[in-house]
């Protein structure tokens, strides 16, 4: 079941320890048992989920830097909405059509997983039709589950639909600990029993019943996963301290179109009256605010002028605010944002926070821009313990960055020079692309499959703005 590779033994012994330990306290104390459980679901420090590389491992992106970006770019559908909606489409018996689906690596992997489960998936252009009528209860033991963070939504969706699910642990970007204890806590509150054996989670509930669930941390994944299960639970579920991200609202809107009753999505208390029969529907996915933010940052960093189209400017307020604070000019229209770069930028301090705070997913791209600001900027990631793998690569290009705990201290202005760098994760890859666009000379980026997880037609969009980027 393990996706294989270097860390296999480490991971195995960690899981095995728990299995052998059983109830290590010998007290049958439920709180103590839960504590142990949490340790199991939270991998120990230093643990790396080893995921097989997809696509052409040798693929490189090559950028000839020094060209300001000019023109218009259209933003694709949101990765993090789409990745929750695909499993949500399994809840009814009739087909659902998702419009504005992004053509990115993670979506392709999700489709493959569903097809292996017998789900009929058809795509026409930007539309994806998901017909779950042939889906049958079976363990989800596809190793690709370990490639995606969002595979955890199959827990909520299949638990809701079949009252039972057996599935491998999720993967996604390596950003430090990414436990799923809040998901588990919520499923248990709805009446489920949860078990982990050899890296496979088994969740079962004879009957799901609505409950009041307080999330100890604000979690996008736990909020959505619990919504997926709760729409199928009898009675009322209240999720307190819920995530307020636009993607949570988007998924709630989809579920409502399927016939579910959900109130409060977008606030920190979501109330769901479950147990209604759901039907397939048609839904258009919101624009990807992280892709949009990446182009905003790239436009500012290259000192160009870019109109970012098909966006919801409100979703990017925190990013626009920080860019303005640096001296970047931002003009918002109903569905577009125009970013005009300047010759000189002021340093800023940034702390990532749950929405509507500054998004952690733009911390790494923003770090590249901060190398072009005068003075010292601090960028603190309060969401993830270890999202700084890009820093060493930026240093190779000439950046002066020091990390202390969860803070990167960026000193500017530093000229960047093209060299060979590696993308360890999706947004780290985006930060290297931005660095490559402003660097002198040629930058070669490996680890491209990580970037393709979340950016649609990257070269096409950037070349359309006047960049020189190609695959090798
Ligand atoms: C597929 C997807 O939508 N991914 C996004 C989602 O990830 P994801 O849903 O995994 O992120 P969460 O919002 O759950 O995580 C936020 C924080 O809570 C912690 N936590 C989370 C769950 C849990 O049970 N216990 C716990 O301690 C996490 O370790 C992290 O420190 O939201 C993140 C935060 O905006 C984004 O960076 C990811 O792009
Ligand atoms: C962290 C991210 O993705 P995932 O949660 O899918 O790993 C991201 O999109 O920046």
Automatic annotation (TrEMBL):
* UniProt xrefs under SUPFAM superfamilies: EPT/RTPC-like
Provide the protein name: UDP-N-acetylglucosamine 1-carboxyvinyltransferase
The 2-(S-cysteinyl)pyruvic acid O-phosphothioketal modification is found at 173
Recorded family membership: Belongs to the EPSP synthase family. MurA subfamily.
Q: Name one GO biological process term.
A: cell division
Q: Which UniProt keywords apply?
A: Cell cycle, Cell division, Cell shape, Cell wall biogenesis/degradation, Cytoplasm, Peptidoglycan synthesis, Pyruvate, Transferase
Chain's role: Cell wall formation. Adds enolpyruvyl to UDP-N-acetylglucosamine.
Residues forming the Enolpyruvate transferase domain are 64-462
Active site, UniProt feature: 173 (proton donor)
The EC number(s) this enzyme carries: 2.5.1.7
Taxonomic superkingdom: Bacteria
Q: Which GO terms describe its molecular function?
A: UDP-N-acetylglucosamine 1-carboxyvinyltransferase activity
Q: Where does phosphoenolpyruvate bind?
A: 79-80
Q: Where in the cell is it found?
A: Cytoplasm
- Answer whether the UniProt record assigns the keyword Cell inner membrane to this protein: no
Q: Which GO terms describe its cellular component?
A: cytoplasm
Q: Which HAMAP family match?
A: MurA
Query: InterPro entries, per this entry?
Result: Enolpyruvate_Tfrase_dom, Enolpyruvate_Tfrase_sf, MurA_subfamily, RNA3'P_cycl/enolpyr_Trfase_a/b, UDP_GlcNAc_COvinyl_MurA
Which pathway does the UniProt entry assign to this protein?
Cell wall biogenesis; peptidoglycan biosynthesis
Catalytic activity reads: phosphoenolpyruvate + UDP-N-acetyl-alpha-D-glucosamine = UDP-N-acetyl-3-O-(1-carboxyvinyl)-alpha-D-glucosamine + phosphate
Can you tell me which residues bind UDP-N-acetyl-alpha-D-glucosamine?
149, 178-182, 361, 383
| Cited Pfam families | EPSP_synthase
């Amino acid at each position: 079941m393990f996706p294989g590779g270097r860390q296999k033994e480490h991971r195995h012994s960690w899981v095995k320890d728990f299995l052998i330990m059983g109830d290590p306290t010998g007290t049958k104390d439920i709180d103590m048992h839960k504590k142990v459980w949490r340790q199991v679901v939270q991998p120990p420090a230093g643990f790396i989920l080893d995921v097989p590389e997809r696509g052409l491992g040798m693929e490189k992106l090559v950028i000839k830097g020094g060209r300001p970006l000019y023109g218009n770019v259209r933003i694709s559908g949101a990765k993090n909405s789409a990745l929750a909606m695909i499993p949500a489409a399994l809840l009814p018996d009739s087909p659902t059509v998702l419009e504005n689906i992004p053509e990115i690596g993670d979506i392709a992997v999700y489709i493959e997983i569903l097809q292996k489960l017998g789900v009929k998936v058809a795509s026409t252009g930007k539309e994806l039709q998901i017909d779950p009528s042939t889906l049958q209860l079976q363990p989800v033991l596809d190793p690709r589950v370990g490639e995606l963070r969002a595979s955890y939504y199959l827990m909520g969706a299949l638990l809701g639909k079949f009252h039972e699910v057996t599935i491998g642990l999720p993967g996604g970007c390596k950003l430090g600990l990414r436990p799923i204890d809040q998901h588990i806590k919520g499923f248990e509150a709805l009446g489920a029993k949860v078990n982990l054996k050899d890296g496979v989670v088994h969740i079962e509930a004879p009957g799901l019943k609505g409950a009041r669930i307080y999330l100890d941390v604000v979690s996008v994944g736990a909020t959505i996963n619990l919504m997926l299960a709760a729409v199928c639970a009898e009675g009322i579920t209240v999720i307190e301290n819920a995530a307020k991200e636009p993607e949570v609202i988007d998924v709630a809107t989809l579920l409502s179109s399927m016939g579910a009753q959900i109130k409060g999505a977008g606030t920190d208390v979501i109330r769901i009256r479950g147990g209604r029969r759901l039907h397939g529907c048609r839904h258009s996915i919101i624009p990807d605010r992280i892709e949009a933010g990446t182009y905003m940052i790239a436009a500012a960093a290259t000192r160009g002028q870019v109109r970012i189209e098909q966006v919801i400017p409100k979703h990017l307020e925190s990013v626009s605010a920080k860019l303005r604070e640096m001296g970047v000019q931002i003009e918002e229209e109903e569905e577009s944002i125009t970013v005009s770069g300047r010759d000189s930028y002021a340093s800023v301090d940034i702390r990532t926070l749950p929405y509507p705070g500054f998004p952690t997913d733009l911390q790494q791209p923003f770090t590249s821009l901060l190398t072009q600001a005068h003075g010292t900027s601090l960028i603190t990631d309060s969401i993830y313990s270890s999202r700084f793998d890009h820093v060493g690569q930026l240093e190779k290009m000439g950046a002066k960055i020091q990390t202390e705990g969860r803070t990167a201290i960026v000193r500017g202005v530093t000229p960047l020079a093209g060299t060979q760098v590696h993308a360890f994760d999706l947004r780290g890859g985006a930060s290297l692309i931005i660095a490559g666009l402003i660097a002198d000379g040629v930058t070669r980026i490996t680890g491209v499959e990580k970037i393709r997880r979340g950016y649609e037609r990257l070269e096409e969009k950037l070349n359309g703005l006047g960049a020189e980027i190609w695959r090798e």
